[in-house]
Amino acid sequence: MMDPPSAATGGRGKRKKTSAAPEKNKRLKMGEDGEGMDGCVHPTHSPRISLLLNRLQQPVTLNELTELLHYAALGKTGGITQPSWCRLHHQRKVKGVNVVIVNGLTQSHFYKHYLTLQHLRITYTSRVTFTPSSQNIASEIFSSEVSNSDGPSIHQKKESVKMHKVNLCSGAALRCHPVITKFGTQTRGLTAYLLPLQEMIQRHYPVKGMPGFEDFVCTDSVNCVTDSSPLYGLDCEMCLTEKGNELTRVSLVDSDGNCVLDELVKPENRILDYLTRFSGITAAMLRPVTTTLRDVQAKIKALLPWDAVLVGHSLNGDLVALKLIHPHVIDTSLLYRKEFGQRFKLKVLAETVLKRQIQTEKKMGHDSIEDAAAALELAQYFIKTGPRQVLERHLEELWGYTLEEEKEEEITDSSAPSLSLRFADILQTLGRTVAFIGKRSAVALDLSNQQWHSSDKEVLASYRKQSQSSFLSVLQFSSFSDHVKRCVPEQEQRYQRVCANLRDMCVVFAGPFPAGFSEREVKRFFCCCGPVRKIKMLNTAVRVHAEVEFELLEGAVLALKMLNGLSLQGQSIKVQRPVNESMLDLDETLDALMGDALNTSSLYAIKTKLRTAESMNISAKVNGHTVGAQFPGASTIKTANGPCPTKAHNKASKLTEETVRETFGNFGAVQRVDLPAKPGKYARHASIKFESSHSKHAALTSEDLSMENYVICPSLTPSHLHSWVSLATTVDAEGEDTEKTHVHNSHQDQEMELMMRKLDRYLGKIFKSLPPCTLSVVVLPGHNSVHGELPGLCFMEVKSGSGGEQ
């Protein structure tokens, strides 16, 4: 959809000076309500989605995605507020929600196959990086708690029910219990009881990337936990030192209850109290010990399989003592839940559920092996028995309820809404249908709402055959995940190749440079085109060349257009791209990126550093044209005193939002200005998004811009990326010299390409089948590897209310 022409269509007119304060207020208002975020004209009162300005380059989590889904389905009438990271406009017009989860794919896969995935890059106008989750995404969507659901349409009768008066003869009454509210009534696999990332953060579990855990060690765990993954019980004992609680003993038991690790540990700091009455540790026991914290960290990493699940009672304290980060945990203190956040002691649960005495007064302190084994058995019992049976067997002993108490308080009105806060339960209470279609999974739904299929083709056919779409439908494609599992030995090598191919798009080779030219001088020479990430000098016996890697695609494009053929100290410099297979479709990819829905009204601008240019005696010729001449797709702006730079202009090299808005506002309303800069440094380049694509065109085609020392070109790097090479930063430094060695497996490459084409076709058919005004979300989940987090990608679009495909 084309934008209407802006009132300001050129740069020849006088600049109109306006107050900075009203302009700022206007921008803030735009960011808050989201109007005009994509620069398009929208049908009146048609639902649409937009990202908040301050969240463009921040990844969203699974919890934030469910936040959007809750608002889309329930809205303000259901007591739900707008999501914290985006805006869904005219939510009341939303007629349904559809989520497609494509397991096994990452953000890098999308940009590697960018040209192939035409439907995804054209149809979805909102795109944001997605943080990988250890949880089952489909299950979390259905079972996520709607914490703010206080609207009259949902809980209008909740005051008539007393939670502490439960009658097990009524199935609906079970939903009042905190265990059922959290886990439902069905017996499910262990993945249903893993602690979600957001809850781990809230309960102070060590989480990678969170403040305070920078020096913690991560286990070699990846995002491949299944219901058959092994459970390991863990328990630690601590003592009090000058620095606080420190580890003195750690015990690990396997799923059969066998102790595989039991070590005493020497604290690093002076011990103030051995806490013997709790830990059982004495000075005599620790005196001969030489084992350190680092030693036991290494042993645990070596012992745990890559898909291990750790079990413990209030396990966060143990992991903090170990200074260990593990993403897959089950906390038994949160399985057997009590009201108001209270928790049972491990000793009470072991005695009531396992009929076993632990932590008795006869023993001196706790036995960490015994405690680890008890927590493990409690988790295994809960998983095997199921939440409902656990309640029926231990309701009176643990929670103090009788089987039939206060019968007169029973709910007799069959139409009374459920008190469950689970998303799926609330929707069904309101008469809205929910459905899951995919491979068999631990989804918190009745079997009547699930359809299990063995292939993506069957999932698609099943959805399209529905006579009436469910209000909330979640589809799960698993063919890519299956493909990845089949190629496990080659997977890391193939991912490194994807990273290398993406990185190559930001690389240019340049030379020959004058003898003795240094890496620092090369960087100063090329930074006039954009931020440089890395320089690699290529010294031969005769001449000096360099490999220059930019952070942004725009930098490489401008380097080719501005610096190729330029004379440096009397020597002509040649700038060219790498010559390899990954570059064959580059021109087509760049054209597609220019027309990407995220870039249609955006420009990239740099502020040249004239002192560098002068010191290097850069010629006034750029690709055979004087500085300031036009070249395809980019504009170089003349200086005020002609093409020859002077030192007087160095003061103007600093960019500010005010000056950028004042300069580019001559071509139309500027919606957003991004000025990325390192701490303590000022910005040298900017991304400018106009409210209209016509304003962008006017800026690109203007011949007499009065902006000093600017170079502009169409934006290429999508707005949700800090830089293009941020897609490919997980390869270890030791592998940098080998990462560009492209080892090919043509059969697997062809298979992957065919799968991508099929996926894009399937997604297009699903979108076409959606009813008008349906919020469509496509999630590439990403995953965690031994080399770090591989981010995913989330696409969002509301289908046009006219019923046609956008």
Number of domains: 4
CATH second-level architecture of the largest domain: 3-Layer(aba) Sandwich
What is the class of the largest domain in the CATH system?
Alpha Beta
How much of the sequence lies in strands comes to: 15-25%
Mean pLDDT: 77
Please give the largest β-sheet: 7 strands, mixed
Strand tally is: 33
C-alpha end-to-end distance: 9 Å
- Contiguous uncertain segments of 5+ residues: 1-42, 149-153, 155-173, 403-418, 610-652, 729-744
Structural class: alpha+beta
CATH topology of the largest domain: the name is Alkaline Phosphatase, subunit A
What is the global morphology? Answer: globular
As an assembly, this protein is: single chain
Output the strand order for the largest sheet: 4-33-30-3-15-13-14
